[in-house]
Design brief:
MOCOS_middle, MOSC domain-containing protein, four-stranded antiparallel sheet, 2 domains, globular, mainly beta, Pyrv_Knase-like_insert_dom_sf, about 10% helix, about 35% strand, MoCF_Sase_C, single chain, seven-stranded mixed β-barrel, M1 Pyruvate Kinase, Domain 3
Amino acid sequence: MTLTLTGLHRYPVKSFRGEALQSALVEPWGLRGDRRWMVVDEDGMVVTARDVPRMLLVVPELVDGGLRLNHPDLDPIEVAVPDGSTLADVQVWSSSLQAAPAGAAADAWVSKVLGAPARLVYLDDPTRRAVNPRFGRSDDRVSFADGYPLLLASEDSLAALNELIAGGRHPQEGPLPMRRFRPSLVVRGAPAWDEDHWRRLRIGDAVFRVVKGCDRCIMTITDPDTAERGKEPLATLARHRRWDGSSWFAMNLIPDTPGGSISVGDSVEVLEREESDGPPR
């Protein structure tokens, strides 16, 4: 089995559009620059494209000293990285922590996108948020990603899923692109769904633990180009990839050797595997 890293993606702002990279530095909490920014409501609760699909139309760019945000209906805005002298309480699912407010101009801009009062915040100290202790170690950390530093998906599994969609109830919605699943890393060269059994990987010179499968939400049924919603892939995953009341696609990773660089084209080696009835969960 010859495995190759074929895609590398970063999402500067949680729930905004991602960007394809050729190489990236692996930090303890994810790829450098990945999901250090986030939108929250007036109470500090995370706001995502699960509830506001049009967030996927915002295109973020990391620039020297900050962030540039682009939207088809708004003038772009540049936001400087906050110095961290002021902090606000924020909530990401079950995680309560502090983040640095981006300022009134940024808040006004994201509020226009959402059509409701909102704030933009920056994770100035990425050591503040721990991963779920059930699947990680006490010193594992994560940015504003849903739960873990990186998400790996397989082209071979997506091809198998698209075949199932083509023969299912909503064939007109397929084939789906990998962008629907917002992975950090994309690999090719294994049998479909073989990643369910991977437990440790080497990509280039970096080593990762494969700690948990990814249970998918309504983000995946949202077209990232139009923000319109359909039925797939959740309808098909619910029939073929259903365990513990959830539908599963892709795997969550934690880096064991942060500080290394990985690149598209790097070889991928499965260092440890475990036979199981689906992904770890």
